[in-house]
Amino acid sequence: MHILHDQPAELYSTFRLKTRLASVIEVSCLADLVQLDTTAAPLVLGEGSNTIFLQAQTKPIVRFTGANITEHWLDEHSCLLHVEAGHNWHQLVSLAVQQQLWGIENLALIPGSVGAAPVQNIGAYGVELADVCAYVDYYHWQTKSIQRFAVSDCAFGYRDSIFKHQLAGKGIIVALGIMLSTVAKPVLSYQGLDTLPLNSTINDIYQQVIAIRSSKLPDYRQLANCGSFFKNPVISSHAYQQLQARYPAIPGFKLNNRDVKVPAAWLMDQQGFKGYRHNDIGCYAKQPLVLVNHGNGMAEELLALIADIQSKVYQAYQITLEPEVRLLNSDGQHYV
Ligand code: EPU
Q: Within a domain: residue 243?
């Protein structure tokens, strides 16, 4: 166990607002976890690529840094990887691609740790974690023991899971089981991958995803950001048809007979937010859904921009944009 006191928050959030964290405790195994005083539930953090500290954090922060991987071959084609939560997600994808193991190549270059992946069921280019996740191992603060959740018990949804709801604040993810296959299963339906040949190799897809992401999304090491800031809203087909009558160009992706997902990026783009900047807080010029901090952004400025975006989008389309990013107050509570 490794305890760091009074840390700069910029080191622990890729949005890099300047504030302080009272303590960061790094644990790497069950023995470390059992020793932790968890009478008051600590705050859990991965690599900080989806968390913004709006204020100085008084709660202790726990990070699981164990990163071992064990391979279990279930038959000649199916490989179950048991991956500890502290492993970096993109490095895991790269490793799977090197070994020609199919399943997560579309999820290349997503920042963050393996342990954070199930919390919001990370997804991109037609694949989401739920498609390959076999189980999640979760350590409960109260019982001081690990429970294995089968994928069917994780309540995975669009950027959603049981870890955001019933289990929020109750413990920490320590490992995942990820089921991969030597059998080629290219998912090429998403725009940008649909131009690839059907017999594309795992490496072709991996490289294409990296190329698309690098061209559309800023690298947080160069320009601080937390990826997509809002979720893409899901509205009823009826509401969508009404909007289409007023805005014929509005894109929509039919999810089923009742629901349509509308790109938040389009709604924001139409309201003029692409490349918007006030002092050091703004929207990325190539993808307005990504809010950025040009260096010295302040929490108040970020909150003002969120309110401005939500109000303009609501006035025009009667749609409420919900943040996808976790915004935290001083005591680790969610701001919204
Ligand atoms: N669009 C615009 N203007 C723009 C950019 C996009 O109008 O400047 C519209 C276009 O209609 C475009 C649509 O938005 O077709 C969708 O854009 P894009 O394919 O870039 O994806 P997204 O919906 O903005 C989602 C995820 C991303 C994920 C990509 C690819 C959410 C909130 N975001 O973005 O995830 O990488 O699809 O699958 O679901 C993240 O969660 O941090 C993230 C980056």
A: yes
Same domain, 250 and 155: no
For 222-270, what is each residue's pLDDT tens digit?
A: 999 999 999 999 999 999 999 999 999 999 999 999 999 999 999 999 9
Could you give the CA distance from residue 203 to residue 97 in angstroms, rounded to a whole number?
6
Q: Which domain holds residue 176?
A: 69-212
Give the ligand 1 atom nearest the CA of 192: 19
Q: Which residues are paired to 57 by β-bridges?
A: 21
Say yes or no: CB of residue 291 within 6 Å of ligand 1.
no
Domain co-membership, 173 together with 48: no
Torsion from C-alpha of 312, 316, 318, 324, nearest 10 degrees: -40
Examine the domain organization and report whether 50 and 114 are in the same domain: no
Query: Which residue carries 């559309």 as its tokens?
Result: 216
Report the CATH number at residue 199: 3.30.465.10
Enumerate the active-site residues.
Answer: 159, 228, 324
pTM recorded for the entire structure: 0.96
Q: How far does the centroid of ligand 1 lie from the alpha carbon of residue 23, in Å? A: 35
The percentage of the chain sitting over the pLDDT mark of 90, rounded to a whole number, equals: 97
